[in-house]
Amino acid sequence: MHVMKRIGALIGVVALLLTPTAAFATGPEYAPEHPTHPTHPAHPTPGPKAPLPQKAKAYGVYCREYSKKHVAGQKGTPFSQCVTAMAKMATAPATTTPKEACKVFLKQKHVKGEKGTPFSRCVVAAAQVKKDTEEASA
């Protein structure tokens, strides 16, 4: 039994010697001088009249729960209507209220199984866009 303890201790010492100390070291702290690339200016958010692909990249995050399927009798898809409302909210947050931006969804009824009406979800998203644009400009 005494031999087994010595062999175990020997294996432990060898393992410690073979472990590189560099694995435990931390690298130097690096902070870039310029947070953005100097040749690429920051892209402004697209306005309400911009084409849908540009707006979808910017405001699609706020409208992801809306359907991208066309509904008969409506202009565009619910997703595109939401994206347009968010663009309207972002370009004129001081003069536009979330209720005004989302008036397209005003007459739509509640769908069973969904959280809130399309109008209420749009108003919440528009308020978030307004908050985000105000924080970004401050």
Could you describe the 3D structure shown?
The protein has 138 residues and is mainly alpha-helical. It has a domain at 52-137. Helices cover 46% and strands 0% of the residues. The chain has five helices and no strands.
Write the layout of secondary structure elements.
Blueprint: H1 2-18, H2 52-59, H3 78-91, H4 98-101, H5 118-137
Helix pairs in contact: 2-3, 3-5
Quick rundown:
This protein has 5 helices and no strands. The chain is mainly alpha-helical and 138 residues long.
Helix/strand-derived category reads mainly alpha
Count every beta strand, where a strand is a DSSP E run of 2 or more residues. 0
Helix share, percent: 40-55%
The helix/strand series, from N terminus to C terminus, equals HHHHH
